[in-house]
Structures are given as C-alpha cells and as structure tokens.
Amino acid sequence: MTTLRQLLQRFRPSGPPGAAGRVAVPADRAARAEEELRQVFAVLATADAEAAAIRAAADAEATRRRRRAGLAAQRIVAAARSRAQHARAEAFAAARADTARAAETVIADAQRTAEALRAHGRARLDAAVPPIVSAALDEVYGTGRDPGTP
Q1: What domain range is 47 assigned to?
Q2: Quick check: helix, strand or coil at residue 119?
Q3: Looking at the domain assignment, is residue 109 inside a domain?
Q4: Residues in Cβ contact with 134 at an 8 Å cutoff, skipping those fewer than 6 apart
C-alpha cells in the first residue's frame, strides 16, 4: 500500500525552473525497486521453505540416530554388566581356590608341628617315667634305693 509521502513524491517538480523540458511524472523508483525485490523475496521464500524442510529432515535423522545410539549404549552396558558379573564370579572362585590352598598349607604345617610336639613329648615322657616309677615303687616297697639314681 502506498503511503501519503510516496504519493506526494510522485508530483514533485522534475527539475529546476528554467527552460521547458519534457513534462512528465517522475518515475516511481520505490515501486520499481519493490517489484525487483518482490521477485528476489519470492525466490528467498522458496529457499527458506527448502531450508526449513532440510532442518526438519535433519532433526528427524538426529532423533533417529540418538534413539539408535541410546539403544546401542543400553546393549553395551548390559553386555558389560554381564561380563563384569562373570568376571567377579571367576575372581571369587580364584580367590576361594587360593584361600583353600593356603588353608591346606597352614593345616599341613600345623599337623607337622603337632606331630613334632607329640614326638618330643613322648621322648620326654619315656625319659621321665622310669625314674618316677622306680621312685614310687621304692617308696611303696622300700627297696632302699636312692630316688635320685635310676
């Protein structure tokens, strides 16, 4: 729509007063520029629509890729948890076997020590019992032997 100012500018003098020139209404430059730009804007509108369609397609593709990546990440995490559980079970079994071997070693050492102590105790008893029995018999039967001699 033409404004009042644009309308009045059409009827302004076309040149300075003086010799007569062609009589005409000056050209409407604004209308001509607007017509040129209208074609450019029409092309830009189609380009803008194409850009919007490309953006929408890119957004949809990004959403699909994010969804696929999320599902892949869930599968990877599930597999990792499964492997971790399996690895923990293997580590526990290995630790349990190591502990059992260590316990067997400790038990074997304790049994050897106990047998050595028993043998030492028997040897000491074998050495200590005869003099004690002899002294007791002497005390009971009065054989007259010195209790300190065997």
Answers
A1: 27-141
A2: helix
A3: yes
A4: 145, 147, 150
